[in-house]
Design brief:
InterPro entries: CheY-like_superfamily (IPR011006), Sig_transdc_resp-reg_C-effctor (IPR016032), Sig_transdc_resp-reg_receiver (IPR001789), Tscrpt_reg_LuxR_C (IPR000792), WalR-like (IPR039420), WH-like_DNA-bd_sf (IPR036388). Keywords: DNA-binding, Phosphoprotein. Residues 4-117 form the Response regulatory domain. This protein has 2 domains: 4-124, Rossmann fold (3-Layer(aba) Sandwich); 129-197, Winged helix-like DNA-binding domain superfamily/Winged helix DNA-binding domain (Arc Repressor Mutant, subunit A), CATH 1.10.10.10. It is of the alpha/beta class. It is built from 10 helices and 5 strands, in the order E-H-E-H-E-H-E-H-E-H-H-H-H-H-H. Strand 1 (4-8), helix 1 and strand 2 (28-32) form a beta-alpha-beta unit. Helix 7 crosses helix 9 (168-182) and helix 8 crosses helix 9 (168-182).
Amino acid sequence: MEANILILEDEIIIARSIKLHLETNGFAAQIATNPEEAVKLLEHRLFDLVLSDINLRHAIDGITFAQQFVPARIPVVFLTAYSDLQTLQKAELVMPYAYLLKPFHKEQLLLTINLSIAHARKKVLPSSIAPQGSNKDITLSAREIEVVRLISQGKTTSEIADMLCISPQTVATHRKNIIQKTKCKNIVELISLAVDKGWL
């Protein structure tokens, strides 16, 4: 099942760009350009993560929105163009799963989202996302771990092949072997396991 992301961003061009990138990489995403829209979406849909700009052109900022309206079970990732100490300290009060400075790399965004969702699901429902069997019995080769790391960054099979200087067929074989060894049903489960095993 694809993860559902709520994007709270008042710059619609940026919001649409993020939405397109997420949907291209297997996520579902909804856009809100102000806190009121975001609250309505939270009331009527189930989200796996909230991706919120901090500096909204609104009476309340993204940090206050997260404090007042985002359920504790939903991880929050903040986006901002500002890195001043006061903003960072205020953001820390919400205990966000991550804090990305604009402009950020799209691969960094995907990795951050995947890790945040994996950590949140493990915290709330650890048994529901754990692959069958014992994690201790799962071992991957060094090359397979490289592939897992690139998968977590949202890389396609072709991109992984180019980066590792191997054929797409070889990458496909590695992916198949990884799934067979880990018994993970989706990328979130795979990343959760990778965090447990120290591969990421």
